[in-house]
Amino acid sequence: MSSHTGSSSNSFPNSPQNPAGFRSFSFRLLLGLTLAALVTGVFSGLGAIALHYVLDFMQELTFGQSEGHHPMVTDGADPARRALVLAALGPFVALVWYYLQSGGRRVVGVKSQIAGATEEDRTPSLWRQISHSVIQIVAVGAGSPVGKEVAPRELGALAAGRTSNLLERLGFVGADGAALLGVRERSLLVAAGAASGLAAVYQVPIGGLVYLVEAMAVGLSLRSLYVGAVTVWTATVTANLVIVNEPTYPVPQLPLDATTLTVAALTGVVLTPLALGFRALSQRAEKLKAKDRSLLWRIPVAFALVAVVSLWLPEILGNGRLLTQHTFNVSLDTAAGGLTAAAVGYVLALAVAKAAVVLLSLRFGSYGGTLTPGLALGAAAAFCVAALVLWAFPGLGGVPGGASMVLYAAALTGTAAFLGVSMNAPLSALTLLIGFTGQGASAWLPMAVAVGTAVLTRWAWMRAFGTKK
Predict the structure, then answer these.
(1) Crossing angle of helices 79-101/126-142, nearest 10°?
(2) Torsion of the alpha carbons at 432, 375, 314 and 63, rounded to the nearest 10
(3) At residue 175, does pLDDT exceed 60?
(4) Helices of type H across 144-221
(5) How many CB atoms lie within 10 A of CB 270?
């Protein structure tokens, strides 16, 4: 599976635009879909809880604290300890991933599970899939720079596929004697399970549902909305037994005014080429991902390199949350006229290093997503651009809120703009970012403006340069 999480190119057999694969509606089918969605949601939520505990354990081991208690886990952590743990973990992770993919074995990604083209795709090895998901979180918890969102998605898809198989074995059949959940219903359930895993681990049910319809390309229909809503909300509520329903990024509300709207519009335009470049490079890295014996040395080298770089740039560690939160913090702490070149240079160095280590890790055999790394790159890039504008036009620091508001508005709306383009799923990016940051109604329009201008700029860019999506 491509770990480029947001790609909307996921194939979906007999899409809602051509719904020939759907079984005719009946009360029996509605009951079966509801039961399957509830069971899938429960197990997806339990999977999110299990991965949450794995992440906490690895962060405690590496940093001496977890992000559940301190958003900036690198603060106060021993640099030598975190570097040694990450470097030492490289050979172990390499061995696990090599074993899972050697001797004719393979891990089955979400896209393949949805398509269900082969028996292995429909019923992948339970222990292999779980091991694959767990080792992703082990690596991210120790500081691997890729996103953690692929693992819960894969567990959610796995739960959905097994639930569908279980209903068939239990004798749930339609009036015609065939399996109650046909190929089309099973594919929809697996896609909903994957989206529910993302929603559960981040506690963003609305974002998860929009992600299902848009980024996973199931289309907009009453059936997809119903199955998606039941699965996503069940998973989110189940995971909430342990995972706290709080914003991933604790930041203040973004006001709605001329300053934030203007900054948002400009941010969407400026960041689009960067987001397109990151999307192309990450897809290229995925295509060339090492899966042979060479990953036995590639992954340890990548982990060791990240560990060394983190001695000077610790915020590159993990799935991108550290870089994003650091950028927000610097923005909010900047008083008018107090923006230093050192602060901007540090954020710029973090952004360049983060992009490099993410691409290197994916190319060298690591599995994970690009959702939260892309979010971090968007925040950092927008911050740096806004800082240059403030230096070039110091009078802008006199707007309501001062330089700090300009920088914060750029960083926050930049996350949505960059992510909408890099995922090729603007609505998903918008709703996920609102959930991640806990923004109220005042921020919705500025963030929507940033995403909208980014989409328009992408369209113009592709027409001008013939760039593929």
Answers:
(1) 160
(2) 20
(3) no
(4) 150-169, 183-202, 205-213
(5) 20
Q: Write the single-letter amino acid at 69.
A: H
**Euclidean distance between CA atoms 162 and 103, whole angstroms:** 25
Residue 179 φ/ψ, nearest 5 degrees: -55, 135
CB of 425 closer than 8 Å to CB of 215: yes
* Main-chain dihedrals φ then ψ at residue 298, nearest 5 degrees: -65, -50
Look up residue 124 and give its amino acid: P
Residue 285 CA from chain centroid, whole number: 17
User: Tokens for 274?
Assistant: 């960067």
Confidence of residue 3 (pLDDT cuts 50, 70, 90): very low
Asked, colleague to colleague, whether 19-239 and 258-465 share their fold, the answer is yes
HSE toward the beta carbon, residue 186, CA cutoff 13 A: 23
What are the tokens at 197? 């895993």
Q: Locate the domains of the chain by residue range.
A: 19-239, 258-465
d(CA 191, CA 133): 17
Q: Which of 429, 409, 407 is nearest to 418 (CA)?
A: 429
Report the mean per-residue pLDDT for the chain: 90
Distance CA 194, CA 154 (A): 6
Residue 466: which region, alpha, beta or left (left: phi > 0; alpha: psi -120 to 50)? left
Domain 258-465: CATH class, spelled out: mainly alpha
CA 383 to each of CA 258, 265, 321, 348, 454: distance values in angstroms, whole numbers, following the listed order:
18, 14, 16, 9, 16
For residue 223, the Cα-to-chain-centroid distance in whole angstroms is 25
Spatial separation of the C-alpha atoms in residues 444 and 166, rounded to whole Å: 42
Q: How far is CA 134 from each of CA 62, 82, 139, 353, 419, rounded to the nearest angstrom?
A: 16, 20, 9, 26, 25
Position 264, amino acid: A
- The reported pLDDT for the residue numbered 199 is 97
pTM, rounded to two decimals: 0.91
Domain boundaries 19-239, CATH class: mainly alpha
